[in-house]
Amino acid sequence: MRHSSLLFLDKVGARISFVLAVFAGLTLTAMMLLACWNMVGRAFGYPLKGTFELMGFMGAVVAAFSLAYAQQSRSHIFVAFFIARFKRPVRLALDAAVHLASAAFFIHAGLELEKLAAFIVELGELSETLQIIYHPFVWAVCIGCFAMGFVLFVSFLKTVLLAEEV
Predict the structure, then answer these.
(1) Would you call 38 helix, strand, or coil by DSSP?
(2) What is the DSSP string of 59-96?
(3) Could you tell me which residues come within 8 angstroms of residue 161 by beta carbon, excluding any fewer than 6 positions away?
(4) Which candidate, 27, 22, 2, places its Cα nearest to that of 147?
(5) In whole angstroms, what is the distance from residue 47 CA to residue 3 CA?
(6) Are 111 and 149 in contact (CB under 8 A)?
(7) How far apart are CA 133 and CA 140, in angstroms?
(8) What count of other Cβ atoms lies within 10 Å of the Cβ of residue 52?
(9) pLDDT per residue rounded down to tens, the chain (166 residues)
């Protein structure tokens, strides 16, 4: 694979993860506003029905949509002191293996969530409290998993292909 192709894939991953992170931020803002509105309403005896349910759905979206951006910007926790003890070829092999296994996990999770969302649509299932359709939230988490899998796979390719040059 040529460097221009790898650079293109990396830019696509960065763009996707940034857009999802923006949506995660907007959803987090909506969660904050909903929680505040509910607290004020509760103080006056008018709590919002279904707040807990909506917070759960939106929390899942925030978590799923922020995963790829955290991976892309390397803002996740990384245990480097353990791996630093190994020689460079071993470190690269471990890094590549972790990226590939993680990418496979998130792609598999996305596929399973896709099946779950389709099943929920087929059943016509609604949320318990508000009686709203909730499969779009499952689809959102599915998209977040696929984005994370893509970013991890690109990281795997970068580790394997760029390691040969150094």
Answers:
(1) helix
(2) HHHHHHHHHHHHHHTT-S---HHHHTTS-HHHHHHHHH
(3) 1, 6
(4) 22
(5) 56
(6) no
(7) 13
(8) 10
(9) 678 889 999 999 999 999 999 999 999 999 999 999 999 999 999 999 999 999 999 999 999 999 999 998 887 666 666 777 889 889 899 889 999 999 999 999 999 999 999 999 999 999 999 999 999 999 999 999 999 999 999 999 999 988 766 5
Q: Which of 159, 163, 156, 144 is nearest to 70 (CA)?
A: 144
On whether the pTM is more than 0.85, the answer is yes
Joined together, the tokens standing for residue 81 give 């002191």
Q: Burial of 18 by CB count in 10 Å (0-12 exposed, 13-18 middle, 19+ buried)?
A: middle
Please count the other Cβ atoms lying within 10 Å of the Cβ belonging to residue 29: 11
Here the tokens at position 160 are: 């394997």
Residues 6+ apart with CB under 8 A from 88: none
